[in-house]
Amino acid sequence: MESFALVLVYLIIGALLRKLPQFPQETGLVLNQFVLFVALPALVLQKIPLLEFSSQLWLPAITPWVLLVIVAALIILAGKFWHWEKTTVGALLVVLPLGNTSFLGFPMVEAFFGEKALPFAMIYDQAGSFVALATYSTILAAWYNPNAATPTAGQIATRILTFPSFIALALALALKPWPYPAFFSLILDSLAATLVPVIMIAVGFQFRLQLDNKETKPLIFALGVKLFLMPLLALGFLSLFKPDPLLLQVVVFEAAMPPMVSAGAIAIGAGLALRLVPALVGLGLLFSFISLPLWYLLLQLYL
């Protein structure tokens, strides 16, 4: 639990830095870009070669897509039942199915399950959350935003193929048969070690909480689905295949992550539920520091 305590300390540091005039409002964005272009690719290059291929590796890749289909259907049904506005339904469709499986997920998986669990988390994130962000969320945000054109298939493919961590994933898989030179491994180790403190400080710096009474019901629905129903669905789905215990725990844990910050940014950029989305992302992050330890304990009891 010391690693979990460190994550909380980094969050507090980020929140405190926001109050200092020496750190401009763009600080969080700059730190995010460092993680996206440097620390995260380094971590992928470092950990993926350690992955031992098995017949069950498809499970971390397919589970987020199974959850996405189920959750999207639930959002549409809930929107019809409670007569939510179109922008509210659109915002939830863009944000809710995707979890913060890299920026928060990797540090949390490492804190609770150790470094050996990270490759499973990376498969879940890269084959699931990231591809869904670049395709599903991007298309739906444009669909619900009347002022935006739907991206073409070529634009989506380019976005995926040029994303730094996707390039790192392809390189790591291609280079898996050969060990890295010692100096290159040292560089990767040092850069990957910056991911957790930098991204959690960035998350703490960017944390915002905005509430509106009108959107209380969609907010409660979304938090319940994201933090409790989705990991429960993942557990039920995975139990059908009797996977490796560590794989099961990591995938369920990733499914329990709060809403993805990047998906929230896409929804806000499309003008969808501008009060609901920040509240959902902010409260989801806050409550996840209670729900994630609970899920860890439940998974230990389950296995």
Automatic annotation (TrEMBL):
Transmembrane segments: 27-45, 57-77, 89-109, 121-144, 156-175, 182-207, 219-238, 250-273, 279-299
Membrane-protein topology: Multi-pass membrane protein
Domain of life: Bacteria
Statement: the UniProt record of this protein carries the keyword Ribonucleoprotein: no
InterPro entries (alphabetical): Mem_transp_PIN-like, Na+/solute_symporter_sf
Keyword entries, A-Z: Cell membrane, Membrane, Transmembrane, Transmembrane helix, Transport
Compartments, as annotated in UniProt: Cell membrane
Pfam family, one: Mem_trans
Similarity section: Belongs to the auxin efflux carrier (TC 2.A.69) family.
UniProt-recorded name of the protein: Permease
The organism of origin for this protein: Rheinheimera soli
Lineage: Bacteria, Pseudomonadati, Pseudomonadota, Gammaproteobacteria, Chromatiales
